[in-house]
Write a structure and sequence with these properties.
The structure is a single chain. This protein is α/β, with parallel strands linked by helices. It contains 14 helices and 20 strands. The protein has helices spanning about 15-25, 60-75, 135-145, 160-175, 185-195, 195-200, 205-220, 275-280, 295-310, 320-340, 360-365, 375-380, 395-400, 425-430; strands at about 5-10, 30, 80, 85-90, 95-100, 105-110, 110-115, 120, 135, 155-160, 180-185, 225, 230-235, 240-245, 250-255, 260-265, 265-270, 285, 350-355, 360. A five-stranded parallel sheet has the order 3-2-1-7-18, covered by helices on one side. The relative contact order is 0.15.
Length: about 425
Amino acid sequence: MIDPDVLVIGGGPAGVAAATELADLGRRVVLVEQRDRLGGAIHRAYVGPGANPLQGVARHRRNWEDLAQRLVQAGDRIDTHYESVFLGVDGDGRFLLDERAGGRVIALRPKAVVLAVGAMEVVVPRPGWELPGVTTAGGLQVQMKETGRAPDGLILVAGTGPLPFALAAQLVAAGNPPVAVMERGQPGRAAWHQPRAALDGLRSIANVKDALGYGASLLRAGVPYLQGWAVVAVEAVPDGLLVTSQHVGGERKQHRVRHLALHDGLVPQAHGLPTQEMVGVPVIRAGDCREVLGADGALSDGRRAAHAVARLLGVAVPEGRLEQTLSAARRTQHAMATLCAVAVPSPDAETVICRCEGLRRGDLDALKGAQSAREIRLVGRFGMGVCQGRFCARHVARLAAEMDVNFDPADLAGDVPRWPLRPVSLSALAAFKGD
C-alpha cells in the first residue's frame, strides 16, 4: 500500500470534514472507520429494511448529506478503510491498523495524522448502575438509530445536559415516551442567577429551535421534565428496575421501569492517543476528541484540523472564519454546562467503581498505602480490565484525590502508549509482515 499524505482516524463528522478538506487541498488521504459505514455516533446508520422510521434533526441530516457528496467528489484522493481499527504506533513509528474485514494488520507511514475518534460518555457511579437494563443515554440513542425503534417497556431518562432531553423527544417519536426526564441541575433556576450564561445559550438560534422542538414534543406526550432530581440508587426487581431518585431539597421518589438511561456529560476520548512528540510526525486532534463542541462544531473543527495539517505540510491555506464558528460553539457549550452545573456525589463503599473488574469504592479505600497510579492499578487492579481505564479512570482519579494520591488517568498508557490499544486476533498478527 502507498503511504498517504495524511491518515485520518475516525469517520464521524469531524473526520470526514477533515478528509474532504484535505482532498480539496490536493492531499492523498487514508480515512479509517471502525464500523462498516461512516457517520460516527450522531449519524449512526440504520441497519433495518427500507428507510429509517426515526429521523434526526434536519439540519444535521443536510450537513451530513453535503459531506457525503464532497466525499464522492474527492474520488480516489480519499482511500476509505471500513471495519478497520487503529491499534497504535509501533517502535518504528508505523501506524498499525487492524483490517477486520480482511483479517489482516497493515502498517502506514503517513506524513501527518488527524485523530477524530470522538467523545466518551460519562456516567457517575451510583449503587446499581452496573445492572442489566441500565444504559447510557448516548448508547440508547445509538441503538435506536440502528434499529429504528425504541426498546420495549417503561423507560426513565436521567442525567444532565441536552442529550437526555433530546433522547426523551426521540423516544416520544419512536412511540415509547419515557416516564420522566430527570435533570440533575436546575437550569431554569440557574438562568436567573447566571443571566450571562442564559443569554449566551440563547444566542445559538439553531440549538434554541432544537430545544423548543424537543420541549414541545415532551409536553404533548405528557412527559414530566423534573429539575434538581438525581438517581441515587438502582435495584433489580422481578419486573425490571426499581430506581430511587432524590431532589436537591431532600425529597425522594421511586420508579419501577424496565430501562434506565443515564448521562452525566461528555469528555474528549484521549485514551492511548499518540502525540507528535511520540511519533515524529504532525498529529492533530479534531472534533470531540479535542474539545466537545457539538455536531456543528465538529464539522468546523474537522476543517480547522485539515488546515492546520496542510500548513504543516507546506500547503497554502486561505484564511477562513472557522475560529469564529468554533468560538460560538464553545460559548454555547459553556453556557449549557454553567446552567446545568451540579456537584458530583461521592459513592458509598459498596458502589461499583470499576465495572470490568467488579471493584467497589471500598476496594479503593482499602489501598490506603498506595501512593501512585501504578500502585492503584497493579495492586488494586483499577484500570486493568477490558476497557483499560477508559471508563473508570476518571472516577478513580477523583476518589484517589480524596486519599491525597495523584492518580493521573494519562499515566495508565505510559509515556509511549503500547499497542494494541484494542483487541486484535492472533491470526491477523501472525500474518502481519510489517512491509
